[in-house]
Design brief:
A hairpin with a 3-residue loop joins strand 2 and strand 3. Helix 3 packs antiparallel against helix 5. It is globular, with a radius of gyration of 17 Å. It is built from five helices and five strands, in the order H-E-H-H-E-E-H-H-E-E. It has one domain: Histidine kinase-like ATPase, C-terminal domain (Heat Shock Protein 90, 2-Layer Sandwich). By secondary structure, it is of the alpha+beta class.
Length: about 140
Amino acid sequence: MRTREPGGRNVLLNLTKRCRWFEFITPSTLALQPLLELLLQPAANEHRELLQLGLQEALVNAVRHGNGNDPAKLVRIRRIHSPQWLIWQVQDQGPGLQPEQRLALLPDELDAISGRGLFLMHQCFDDVRWSPRGNRVQLAKRR
C-alpha cells in the first residue's frame, strides 16, 4: 500500500531520499578501530565519544558472545541516518539472547562483572531494541 502526500508525491520515495543506509560486513575480530571510524562518520563531534563507547560494546558482544570469537563467522552492521536519527544495527551469527536472558544480565551499575556491555549500550543510546531471535541489536541516537 502506498500513501501519497499533498501534491501526489509518494511518501515512501520521499523517505528514501531523506534516509541513507550503508551496510558493513566484517569477520569476527576485535580490531575494531578502523570500522568504528567508518560507522561514526555521520555522528556529531559532541556525541562521538559516547556513541563510540556504546557501539564498541555492541561489536565486542557480537564478536565474543554471539560469534564465540570465531573469525569464520561474520558481523553485519547497518548504519542508517536521517535528519532526526542515527541508527546502527549490529547482527552476529550466534543463537541470540532471549529477553529474559538479557534482563538477567543487565546490571544496575557500571562496575558489574557481567552485563557491562548491555548496561553501556542503554546508557549511550536513546533507544535500544532487539530482534525477535536476539542476535541483532538496534542502537539509535536522536540528532
